[in-house]
Amino acid sequence: MKKDTNTKTALIEVAHKLFADRGYDGVSIADIAGELGITKQALLHHFGNKEKLYGKVLEGVSDRFGEIIQAHEGKGDTKREQFFSILHDLYEQMNTQKHDARLIMRELLENQPRIESKQKWYLRPFLEKLTELIREITVKEQLSSAEAFTRIYQILGAMNYFAISDPTLKKMFGKQTYNDVEQLFFNQLKQMYALDEQ
Amino acid sequence: MKKDTNTKTALIEVAHKLFADRGYDGVSIADIAGELGITKQALLHHFGNKEKLYGKVLEGVSDRFGEIIQAHEGKGDTKREQFFSILHDLYEQMNTQKHDARLIMRELLENQPRIESKQKWYLRPFLEKLTELIREITVKEQLSSAEAFTRIYQILGAMNYFAISDPTLKKMFGKQTYNDVEQLFFNQLKQMYALDEQ
DNA sequence: TTTATGACTTACCACTTGGTAAGTTGTCAA
DNA sequence: TTGACAACTTACCAAGTGGTAAGTCATAAA
Questions:
Q1: Is the CB of A51 under 7 A from strand C?
Q2: Distance CA A49, CA A195 (A)
Q3: If we measure between CA atoms, which residue out of A72, A75, A61, A44 comes closest to residue A108?
Q4: Rounded to an integer, what is the distance from CA A112 to the centroid of its chain?
Q5: Chain D bases under 7 Å from protein CB?
Q6: From CA A44, how far away is CA A28, in angstroms rounded?
Q7: Whole-number Cα distances in Å, A105 to A20, A58, B12, B73
Q8: Residue at minimum CA to C1' distance from nucleotide D28
Q9: How far is A41 from chain B (nearest CA, A)?
Q10: A115-132, pLDDT tens digit by residue?
């Protein structure tokens, strides 16, 4: 019965959504399996245990974000274009795949990392690449690497924070206001941090 | 035996820490009580149930942040000073009381709010006050309220994100780098968003 | 001195949790 | 046709969950 390699990917998808919304401890493997009308033992058959499933979910996040930076690696654009293009894709990714944004935030909150291993550090090359780029762009200012990193982290923080705030902001200020802000958000960020614009 | 009204506040303190670090579902009431050498039934005696204890913890966060804005309400400073002063206190609060920062972030992630009620909305007057202030400050630009709000939310997002990132960043780049960034962070934020500086 | 009350404890309880063990059943390669 | 294997299921289970019930014991008010 090979009908469903689908099942495995479907499980990861469901797990992705549920972990993002409710957190690792807020979701039972029975919940996840149940969403697909399977028993939890079927899930365990595919992944061995809960942590491994969670690991697969994180792997997905890691891959998607890794691809963004790679997609811009060799392109012949100017550094400046490359920088803003990466940022833009990042913004898009976070706001269309809110589950990814939520999972990243949740991982950041977990200081005793459940999965200490490799895949958590997809963030690092990301941060380093962007830090390097912003230094090359802001030639007039000659940013130290700490200053450059600080700037990057503020941008990323603002983006990620906004991406996860969507339900709260909608409830608090209404859908209309939220949409207005969403439209403005990226350009305003760009404007704020593009001090050296030529 | 009235020795310990302390116990009650001690429980809230411990719960505050644990909920912030591990999330609502990641902590059992037995864990919390155990930290003080009490049985969980003693805890239940004081708070009735887990959610009510959690509510008390949130109340604390709400109060502390509410005080910040109140402390600056009547002061005779200029709007600009008032604005940056509030922001600064906020930054301090988030970075000295990391548990508060973590709890706020966790609450933001919870879209099916455990405690739908009042205290969640302490954020709202906060956001509105700051939005109003920034509009009064940036007279040259004449920001729409959506633009002003966007700006505020970026600042708050950057701050909160950074505050919860501390263990991750320390592990990723070392304590030294982290301290460098921490020193720069607020001034750089201020600089970025103080476009209308006179 | 009684009575009430607050701060607990011990004893339970039903339910949920992640996980193991041992099947069953359909498919495909030898 | 057989035998392996993948994709499940049913049957369990020990440990932990939040919560109830019923007591113990010290203090303070009547």
A1: yes
A2: 49
A3: A61
A4: 20
A5: 6-11, 16-22, 25-28
A6: 12
A7: 9, 12, 25, 33
A8: B1
A9: 23
A10: 665 566 778 888 999 999
